[in-house]
Amino acid sequence: MSIVIRDVREHELDSVLALNNAAGPAILPLDAARLRRFHADAEYFRIAERDGTLAGFLVGFGSRARHDSVNFRWFAERYPDFFYIDRIVVASRRRGGGVGRAFYADVQSYAELRYPQLACEVFLDDGNDPALLFHGSFGFREVGQHVMPGVDGGPGHRAAMLMKELCSYPWVRDTYRGHLPEVPWIVAPRTAAAPVQRATGT
After folding, report:
1. Residue ranges of the N-acetyltransferase domain (predicted)?
2. Which CATH class is domain 3-184?
3. pTM for this structure?
4. In what order do the strands lie in the sheet with 3-7?
5. pLDDT at 190
6. Which of 63, 116, 146, 182 is the most exposed place for a label (fewest CB within 10 A)?
């Protein structure tokens, strides 16, 4: 069956929360309040459906977002303009079935019209070669490492900080000067959280 990627709906947030918190140590846990902040503020918050059931979700923020993630801030302190993948979660029974690749194709098609770079991190505490290989196959490269603060004095997560140049962005920026055509496939996926128009040439 095909994979359908679409905007999350508010009534699905409980299912998204359960999926996130069952994902294991490679994904930071969430509580309901933080997930609702994501729903209110994230520029990109989409789910994948396969066979009519929730197969995964991806949350992303533009570099001008008011986002309190320490990994987001790491990028913001070093790069002026990027789109940040805060988290991608794929249901365990769907891993290896193309959901992650479908998400990355979708989020890149969104980001490359609006941002010059795509950013994310991969936790390194327990190895994680499959995740590094996955991102490398999409053209991400490591630009540094960051150790997140631990909880209650415990050790923090060490993460590889990854970025990908979005080669289409300069042409889009120079051609459309921040005013993209209003056609369905270009419209921001979450109108309420769509980014403000930004100055061109930066």
Report:
1. 3-168
2. alpha beta
3. 0.88
4. 3-7, 44-50, 53-62, 83-90, 117-123, 158-165, 141-147
5. 62
6. 182
